[in-house]
């Protein structure tokens, strides 16, 4: 097709051969074979020169269109391979969704790679793990307990911890310091071990070490449900320190002096993932990760 376009535009075998950097006899044979394959003459040949037949003029326009589309497909394939365009499926949980790290990374990525479609999926951490394993997600932004082993690759975006959520009229709010032993006679609302087994197990272990065995009244799957249950007087509960209850929740958050249960907000992905766009997302997230207060301070002082 490229040979025929050159001949059709030059209407001269000598000039077309020079343009294509091939010999004139080789070019003549290519056009002859093309006409045989198509089954009709494409050129009118006479001693004064060559011209296009009606079929040749039609075929020339189609060849130009096909070659243009081939070039566009080639460039598109290269851009996909380089991670410039494509689709990236990112999971996030409730806590990741409310922290500042996530929108900061997503906004920066959209500015840097506007032709990569970011598909966001709201999933609890355990469900993100299952989706990563099934290759339904490219990466997940989730909470993992410090020191927790994983089959995936990850790095830390931020940190979180746990506080105690109490109804605003609870007697424990009168204490200068709340300890785990103070919860021995309390009714607890706990994270559902079906979906959040690691957090549940570590909270239970911490209570046992403090020789506190409060009664578990109910399990809940998400923090909004937990806050509603605490507000209704169903019990007290542990929440992440990044929680900011709105005015409709009549609850108070207090630290627990002897509860040390740090969790990391991590970007997590499967090491075998070959999506080129993922490498760009990871690199950008690594550049933007770190202590947010330190970053803000550096910006304010002109150091960042």
Q: Give me the secondary-structure category.
A: alpha/beta
What would the average pLDDT be, to the nearest integer?
87
CA-CA gap between termini: 55 Å
Cα radius of gyration in angstroms: 33 Å
Main beta-sheet annotation:
5 strands, mixed
Query: Quick one: overall form?
Result: rod-shaped
Helix content, binned percent: 40-55%
Number of strands: 12
Describe, in plain words, how this protein is organized in 3D.
- The protein is an alpha/beta fold and 304 residues long.
- Strand 1 (43-46) and strand 2 (49-52) form a beta hairpin.
- The chain has 11 helices and 12 strands.
- The longest helix is centred in the N-terminal third of the chain and has 28 residues, at 54-81.
- The strands form 3 sheets. A 5-stranded mixed sheet has the order 4-3-5-12-6.
- It is rod-shaped, with a radius of gyration of 33 Å.
Provide a short characterization of the protein structure.
The chain is an alpha/beta fold and 304 residues long. It is built from eleven helices and twelve strands.
Features:
5-stranded mixed β-sheet; 11 helices; single chain; 304 residues
What secondary-structure arrangement, pairings included, does this model have?
Elements: H1 2-10, H2 13-20, H3 24-38, E1 43-46, E2 49-52, H4 54-81, E3 86-92, H5 94-98, H6 101-112, E4 116-122, H7 125-133, E5 139-145, E6 153-160, E7 162-167, E8 187-191, H8 197-209, E9 215-220, H9 223-231, E10 236-240, E11 251-254, E12 263-269, H10 276-288, H11 292-300
Parallel strand pairs: 3-4, 3-5, 8-9, 8-10
Antiparallel strand pairs: 1-2, 5-12, 6-12, 7-10, 7-11
């Amino acid at each position: 097709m490229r040979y025929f376009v050159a001949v059709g535009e030059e209407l001269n075998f000598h000039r077309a051969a020079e343009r294509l950097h091939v010999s004139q006899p080789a070019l003549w044979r290519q056009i002859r074979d093309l006409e045989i394959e198509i089954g009709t003459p494409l050129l009118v040949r006479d001693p004064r020169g060559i011209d296009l037949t009606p079929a040749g003029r039609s075929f020339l326009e189609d060849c130009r269109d096909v070659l243009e589309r081939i070039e566009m497909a080639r460039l598109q394939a290269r851009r996909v391979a380089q991670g410039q365009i494509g689709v990236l499926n990112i999971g996030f949980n409730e806590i990741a969704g409310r922290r500042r790290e996530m929108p900061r990374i997503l906004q920066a990525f959209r500015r840097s790679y506007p032709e990569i479609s970011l598909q966001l999926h709201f999933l609890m951490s355990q469900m993100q793990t299952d989706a990563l394993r099934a290759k339904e997600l490219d990466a997940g932004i989730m909470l993992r307990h410090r020191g927790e082993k994983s089959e995936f690759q990850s790095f830390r975006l931020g940190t979180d911890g746990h506080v105690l959520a109490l109804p605003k009229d609870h007697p424990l709010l009168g204490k200068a310091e709340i300890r785990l032993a103070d919860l021995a006679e309390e009714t607890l609302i706990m994270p559902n071990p079906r979906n959040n087994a690691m957090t549940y197990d570590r909270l239970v272990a911490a209570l046992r070490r403090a020789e506190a065995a409060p009664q578990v009244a109910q399990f809940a799957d998400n923090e909004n449900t937990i806050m509603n249950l605490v507000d209704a007087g169903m019990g007290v509960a542990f929440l992440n320190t990044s929680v900011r209850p709105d005015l409709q929740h009549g609850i108070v958050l207090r630290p627990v002096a002897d509860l040390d249960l740090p969790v990391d907000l991590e970007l997590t992905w499967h090491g075998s993932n070959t999506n080129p766009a993922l490498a760009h997302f990871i690199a950008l997230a690594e550049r933007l990760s770190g202590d947010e207060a330190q970053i803000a301070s550096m910006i304010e002082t002109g150091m960042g």
